[in-house]
Description:
The complex is a heterodimer of chains A (146) and B (144).
Chain A: H1 3-13, E1 16-22, H2 39-53, H3 58-63, E2 66-67, E3 70-77, E4 86-96, E5 100-109, E6 117-126, E7 128-129, E8 134-135, H4 138-141
Antiparallel strand pairs in A: 1-4, 2-7, 3-6, 4-5, 5-6, 7-8
Chain B: H1 2-14, E1 16-22, H2 38-55, H3 58-63, E2 66-67, E3 70-77, E4 86-96, E5 100-109, E6 115-124, E7 126-127, E8 132-133, H4 136-143
Antiparallel strand pairs in B: 1-4, 2-7, 3-6, 4-5, 5-6, 7-8
Helix pairs in contact in B: 1-4
Amino acid sequence: MAEHEKKVIEKLLGIEDFYELAVRVSDTDLMDVVHSNIYITYFDEGFISFTSKLNKDCGALHKEGIVFPVRKVEIEYISSATFGDTVLIHTRVLQVGNTSITLSMDCYKNTKSADTLLVKGRIVRLIMDLKTNKLIKITDFFKDII
Amino acid sequence: MRELEQKVKKKLLDTRDSTTLKVRVDDTDLMQVVHFKNYLMYFDQGFVSFMDGIVQGVSKCVEQGIVFPVKRIEIIYENSAKFGDIVLIETRVKDIGKKSITFMHDLYRESDKALLARVESVRLAMDWNTKKLLNVLDFFAKYM
Lengths: 146, 144
């Protein structure tokens, strides 16, 4: 592996992002909690915030045909939030593969502490160029972050 | 009681449910395919269909305050569905614990039987009035 690649991976593994959002009424269900499916949309928000930290604007990239398909999701539900709460999404990179990146996306109610953990999430994303329908190598995509 | 439990267990493990739904415009996203969140909605539908076959109307349980929170999910995405596709959801029970039940849902595109996603979900049964978890087999024995 080239020296530059190693540096990119090292940098990615060291990045953390916190993103806060308010629970919307439409996120809740008949149990008066945020519906289990909704956390996935929170993961999207967390991911967009994470990439913007690396100066990658998902909106602009989409217009160029660069998208981030999801390959795998794992969620463990610990406790619940409802309307009136804020959700804090803590994003970290767990693994950088050749064409996939695994992120940990843990959500907390209001503030981060051991007793406010809502869900433990893990997501595997790819980066794809819709113009060629080809996957982009992760370290190529992030090569300019160092 | 033990015999009844075995009977309930066998019935749950032997049941295969399949249901279909049509992809709507608002299920899709900027990648022209169904957004990955919506597969969760689809397998929720598979769960409801499975339960309707077993307990005759899961909505009645909900009216009585029995709900089915999700404890854990794992999804692997294989292919993507598009607007107009019919999604076939096949649901079966993989495992029955004391307080949890694990479902497997396979989602296919109906036209070419392409596997779209494979989902494992762990659900609980809870009495919303007392906020207590129910013994899964007791619950099914009562409602079946």
